[in-house]
Amino acid sequence: MYQFQCDYTGGCCPEILEKLVQTNPLELPGYCEDSLCAEAESLILKKAGLNKEEADVFWAASGTMANLSLLTTVMAANEAVLAADTAHIHTAEAGAIEFSGHKILTVRSKDGKILPESIERVCSNFEESDQVSRAHVCRPRAVYISFPTELGTIYSLEELKALSGVCKRHRLFLYIDGARLAYGLAASSDVELKELAECADAFYIGGTKCGALFGEAVVIKDRDVRDRFLGVLRMCGGLIAKGRTLGCSFKAFFEDDLYQRLGRSANEKAAKIRTAFEEVGVSFYSESQTNQLFPIVDEKLFNRLSEKIKFKVIRRTQEGQGILRLCTSWSTPDEAVQALVNLIKS
Amino acid sequence: MYQFQCDYTGGCCPEILEKLVQTNPLELPGYCEDSLCAEAESLILKKAGLNKEEADVFWAASGTMANLSLLTTVMAANEAVLAADTAHIHTAEAGAIEFSGHKILTVRSKDGKILPESIERVCSNFEESDQVSRAHVCRPRAVYISFPTELGTIYSLEELKALSGVCKRHRLFLYIDGARLAYGLAASSDVELKELAECADAFYIGGTKCGALFGEAVVIKDRDVRDRFLGVLRMCGGLIAKGRTLGCSFKAFFEDDLYQRLGRSANEKAAKIRTAFEEVGVSFYSESQTNQLFPIVDEKLFNRLSEKIKFKVIRRTQEGQGILRLCTSWSTPDEAVQALVNLIKS
Amino acid sequence: MYQFQCDYTGGCCPEILEKLVQTNPLELPGYCEDSLCAEAESLILKKAGLNKEEADVFWAASGTMANLSLLTTVMAANEAVLAADTAHIHTAEAGAIEFSGHKILTVRSKDGKILPESIERVCSNFEESDQVSRAHVCRPRAVYISFPTELGTIYSLEELKALSGVCKRHRLFLYIDGARLAYGLAASSDVELKELAECADAFYIGGTKCGALFGEAVVIKDRDVRDRFLGVLRMCGGLIAKGRTLGCSFKAFFEDDLYQRLGRSANEKAAKIRTAFEEVGVSFYSESQTNQLFPIVDEKLFNRLSEKIKFKVIRRTQEGQGILRLCTSWSTPDEAVQALVNLIKS
Amino acid sequence: MYQFQCDYTGGCCPEILEKLVQTNPLELPGYCEDSLCAEAESLILKKAGLNKEEADVFWAASGTMANLSLLTTVMAANEAVLAADTAHIHTAEAGAIEFSGHKILTVRSKDGKILPESIERVCSNFEESDQVSRAHVCRPRAVYISFPTELGTIYSLEELKALSGVCKRHRLFLYIDGARLAYGLAASSDVELKELAECADAFYIGGTKCGALFGEAVVIKDRDVRDRFLGVLRMCGGLIAKGRTLGCSFKAFFEDDLYQRLGRSANEKAAKIRTAFEEVGVSFYSESQTNQLFPIVDEKLFNRLSEKIKFKVIRRTQEGQGILRLCTSWSTPDEAVQALVNLIKS
Question: Which residues cross the membrane (chains A, B, C, D) (predicted)?
Fold first, then answer.
């Protein structure tokens, strides 16, 4: 069976593994106070066009942990985060945000993307209410978006700027979940780390789903959030004693353009598969430009694929149709891609 | 400078590193559903004298995460956990238990250990109260102990059984934090994994502080808690996508007696240092039998040590005395131990 | 200005006021352990066809408090409550349920009512998932419905039984918010307190919006929830020291059929207003059968009403249309009703 | 049996009852937006020497609710409140603060009072730690004191100023729980509402235990907390729909000096009882100056008292001694006081 069910079936990419082996004997201080974390932070800040005055980089054990601890730091009691109804924090993180005491206000999304007017509407409603009416709802405080989205799509720079604008106007904290950022950056024609860093108040650079063993880099610009984040991260159980592992991994990612390369290579594999689907007339649930594909296949193709490859079923219709998700990653063998392409076309 | 400030200054032990490299190319399912986790679980259950009917093993990203998610699964609203006033969850986890909505009821401890009568007293008070008086406090639901304790001491089998007995009588869930379990088991003459598993309702086997890159193995016997734990762990952000890393590490720990060996070796290094302190008449804050030492040094020795080694200062008195904590681990070089011994004696 | 903006513009109904004055000099124990609470409990249990073995009655300071403390008692970590997207706990309680750490899973509703198949779908999806997929979402644990609903409609006995059935099949706790129960019971042809008590695992009988100064009676059948509720209520700040006030009020409600009479009288006033709207061709946003009306008025009528009466605006369209909410209650003067009718018809 | 077990055995004082009856027919807006609340706010602000620019008054359903919602508004994630180990929020509110996600850092107290140096020590420890050490604990954010304390004692103006000073130096929010404020103000020679308002950032004026049916007035000076409090109060279920009841009660309290009179009268009754105890050589657990007395009685007196009066047992020693709590209030009949005095002396 070929593995297309997710983008974390492999271990870590060889470049990271090599560095882990290399640095393993070093005796280093704990809790991300080591030189590897410091070097990785410098590299990231530089790529993001930020200096140490303007932002800090923190290290979280998982994506859910990054989201939970960041948003918990940002939101006060009775404050809410706005997110697409397809947002990972709403559909796939087991109620983490609510566990922290906060409501997610879902807004309609298109292809996984929030439109600025959706945010505008919620905020205007709130702002135009009198004091007592406001007290009956949650105060909008933050906006959560994913880059790329859960449906594999990406925001253009213009779209990001529009979101950033509406957030600034309504004093909302804009947070970007970059679980699959490598694929998003590689697919985008106008958004690089710099643009992301300009538009967002905080974002995380995904490690786990982009070729690291585990761990994510959380970049925060807001001064107050930076001051309080480490304590919250610790409180949530997400501060890693041997932070060096994360520092080492992200140093490898950003010392040269490994992160970008890993993203591009996975996107290219996905593109080949997409083309194969298109050639046999299969349509897609979303116009993904990245490493996740959401083909809508009929029963026959569903069954044929099931025999040889692993994928995730998003939904099945009563007629036997299936909306599937297939992922590629740095570790997807070319041979597996070819086998899948043949299977689709056969 | 020699590093004695904690037991996680090294990377992972070579045996684990080798396995990580070996298994890295494997394509495996995510979220701890892989064969490495399954093998590690089997090995652990076997050593603990348990079968798959009696217990499950789960994998958590960190010790705070293990404590947070386990206790959150166990406790309902308005329920509390009893712990020593020196307990890690009370003094060093940034309010994680309270973040989950629960109160820690601290009880007096001796050398880091809870006495059964302390538990007895809290429970009797509660049980003898009328319904309204009970409603004004938190219902005791769980007991948290550490093995070894935060002061390096260990419970004897008799002590563990006594605690287990009082917990059973009052329907309290007994949970053991084994962040440094390797050192505790290696130091004990009558407690092995089997005994721990008999006395506790759940416990975790520490990886991070005992030689793994990160991660802890949570062993749970209670059926209801087993059924709900994974969802809570995910909600807390502690479920690791590439669980294989943890499976691989713990497989290495328990395939032979590596875990025990790592503990013993660190304890032996600590013993040499302890002897040196004793020889120059230094007394200790606690009778640690494991890899942590708590010497009470005068100003002169404090200064001399400060020049060459890193340690943690627990407290300083006005007269310049210091209570220190020094840790050894698998990665402490013999040379560092010797240097420290010389320093003490000089 | 005549007051139709809500059903709590008056103080308490005269029958309750009289009893409060009468019982004021009594010296009674605190925290609902008094004879007035005991008597009120007996009366309620009797009307509900329950005995003291089968259920307890508790007293909460407000409706949000009743919902918060009851659902917090019922749900464990990572568990969710299903509710209509129009549910009071979702739209008007400022994130109380999320504050307690739990997610509300909204399901589509019709006229404010949940359909059994909506519950069925969520539960089947969950139950058919494997263990890891389950861990990524919240476990359905309770269902929240309102009687009458937020749109003034009421469930028929058949509908209630169907909901109760699906809840039992999926081991969901069925909880009914009876903030305006007096109006619902008065409007229903086949649901009385007995039927409610048969179908629900817990429900609350609204005081505040039905003629009391404040306070709600929470009826709970489940043994474990009864055992733990008082502590949770206290923890939430909802246990009232002078519970006697609530006991006294609900004794007045249920000593004879005052509760029913208050509901009926408000419904009759609402019916007169509804007829007037219908006569001038105004349609309604929902087919309310109780004391809340949701007429959809054009700009002209909107403005005419605005001059003389107070109401709540649910929403305004760009064309100037308005969906309004008008409420009657025991305290609405007949003169106000007549004035409003004249205004509509003029 | 005479009732000395608490200060809320009566209904409300006659002056409040009269106003409730008088204002009952008024049709008023809900949620404390009514004229009675506005008038009560003006009266309170005036007595406190504050204007509407400097502070707002809010209305909470209970004391636990006031504490929970105020502190939840003040504290961000990972922040803690310092309190005496005898503090009501620590010993008698069922874990409300922890439920909201926050830790109570208890400090040693004397006669129920916190010493400024205790606060100083906790804050210095925190401030002198490095960033990583800080991340392992909770950040001190607020200080909770009670006036009078849970042991009936009161802070002098000098003591209050010292606490206020240390709080300002360390940017801590000083919050005063005035559940029994009437008794405290009546007993103090130098603290009136003005002084309290000068020293505290927020405080609440107790209604329930001082003669109202229920409800407390929360006075807040901090601008940000004022802006967010109402939403948090609603979220906690503590915003009362018929806030008029609270407005009416506090208007009665502060229209003339009723609040002070009620306090003084209860204190005088307590003084008579204290004198009687002293005359027969009974000593006290605390030097209470207010309406609560804590005599330490021998077994004989314990039994004699038990026959005729109700009191609360704080603790019993093995020798049969008992530390009792006896309370007086506006509703304690002179006859009961005399009977108790006779009983003590007999």
Answer: none
